[in-house]
Design brief:
Layout: E1 2-6, E2 14-17, E3 19-20, E4 27-36, H1 39-45, E5 55-56, E6 61-68, E7 80-83, H2 93-96, E8 122-123, E9 129-130, E10 142-146, E11 150-153, H3 159-179, E12 187-191, H4 195-206, E13 211-216, H5 222-228, E14 232-235, H6 241-248, E15 254-259, H7 264-273, E16 274-282, H8 299-302, E17 305-308, H9 316-328, E18 338-342, H10 347-352, E19 360-364
Parallel strand pairs: 12-13, 12-15, 13-14, 15-16, 16-17, 18-19
Antiparallel strand pairs: 1-2, 1-5, 3-8, 4-6, 4-10, 4-19, 6-7, 7-11, 8-9
């Protein structure tokens, strides 16, 4: 099969003919139909997010099951599936308590470069083992993934928009609805309106927020922010973030603040944008050497709730179908997120692209 391989940091991906080994017990071979290009893929290619090399990137995909390994019962050949990069063991305290995204067995190993047994199914023509990315490696015509990474998709749902559910959509929506617990009438601030941010915005809209303030350093993102539900847009290159948010909220601050950029300055601002007793959600991934500074004397007085949000606090098996139903009802905007589609051969142009109207460039394997 053909796959895009990253062999050295800060170099173009190479399109190679590689061997995909058959799935082992508990694994599924999927023919990829569509794969979004996430900023995490870009960050890994630049060395910001570590992963062993060489590697086939991609962790936002949809496709069709072609083969299953021994013991697989949840999917069968011919099934359409969305892919989750958070497989679960089903037995640890987190899986048993409904938080499989924090699975103690697999969550810490998401960037180790292997499948659940630590080995790979990707082999170059010279016999060299190639690493996986986030258990998925969707920048390829086919891939082998854990069974619990496959979430059934109804045949009538288009593959291209469905592919986005696997990362940006679930992460952003979950940050608002599950981690932030946005409710009717709330005022919400979303810091960073990229792929995760716009889905936090529409998650807040779907949850009934009365006011959604999008904050970004790119004025060109105002239109897409408003499309997905923002009522206000703050350009941080022109005004102070905290001062403007307080002005818009009559000095109180927001009920829920979602930091989706991973920028350390923005993360520091997030606390100050929330009202007393409000909630601050950190979902953007910062550089490893970044730190957030909090005003120690104010912490007990203001009773703000501070939480992280990994993969939007999702339970993929339960939450992915909910998002599909919201899409069917016209409440969750997916098609509008696709800036354009490219072929696998054009992957490097997609990596370099900064989407203008939508928020994702998607690799389509159906051209």
């Amino acid at each position: 099969m053909r796959a895009a391989v990253l062999r050295e940091l800060n170099t173009p991906l190479t399109i190679e003919d590689i061997i995909l080994e058959s799935p082992k017990a508990g694994e599924v071979l999927v023919r990829i139909e569509a794969s979004g290009i996430c900023q995490s893929d870009v960050a890994t290619a630049k060395g910001i997010i570590p992963n062993p090399l060489p590697v086939v990137l991609g962790h936002e995909g949809s496709g069709v099951v072609e083969e299953v390994g021994a013991g697989v019962t949840s999917v069968k050949p011919g099934d359409h599936v969305m892919l989750s990069w958070a497989p679960e063991c089903g037995t640890c305290r987190f899986c048993r308590s409904g938080h499989p995204n924090l699975c103690s067995t697999y969550a810490p190993r998401v960037l180790d470069g292997g499948l659940l047994d630590g080995t790979t199914r990707l082999v170059s023509g010279t016999g060299e083992h190639i690493h996986h990315y986030s258990f998925l490696s969707t920048f390829a015509e086919k891939t082998v993934v854990p069974e619990s990474s496959c979430i059934r998709l109804d045949d009538d749902i288009p593959m291209i928009p469905a592919s986005l559910i696997g990362c940006a959509v679930m992460t952003g929506y979950g940050a608002a609805v599950k981690s932030g617990r946005v409710g009717p009438g709330d005022t919400v601030v979303v810091l960073g309106s990229g792929g995760v941010g716009v889905n936090a915005i529409q998650g807040a809209r779907i949850a009934g927020a009365a006011r959604i303030i999008a904050v970004d350093a790119q004025a060109g993102r105002e239109a897409s922010s408003r499309l997905f539900g923002a009522t206000d847009f703050v350009d941080v290159t022109k005004v102070g973030v905290v001062e403007t948010v307080l002005e818009l909220t009559r000095g109180e601050g927001a009920d829920v603040v979602i930091e989706a950029s991973g920028n350390s300055l923005s993360m520091n601002n997030a606390y100050h944008c929330a009202r007393r007793g409000g909630t601050v959600v950190f979902v953007g991934v910062a550089a490893a050497d970044s730190f957030v500074q909090l005003p120690a004397s104010r912490l007990p007085r203001e009773e703000k709730h501070i939480t992280g949000s990994f993969y939007g606090g999702t339970n993929p098996a339960l939450d992915f179908p909910i998002l599909v139903n919201l899409y069917r009802q016209g409440k969750l905007l997916l098609d509008e997120q696709v800036d354009g589609t490219i072929t696998l051969d054009q992957i490097n142009s997609g990596i370099d692209n900064k989407p203008q109207q939508g928020v994702r460039t998607v690799v389509s394997f159906s051209h």
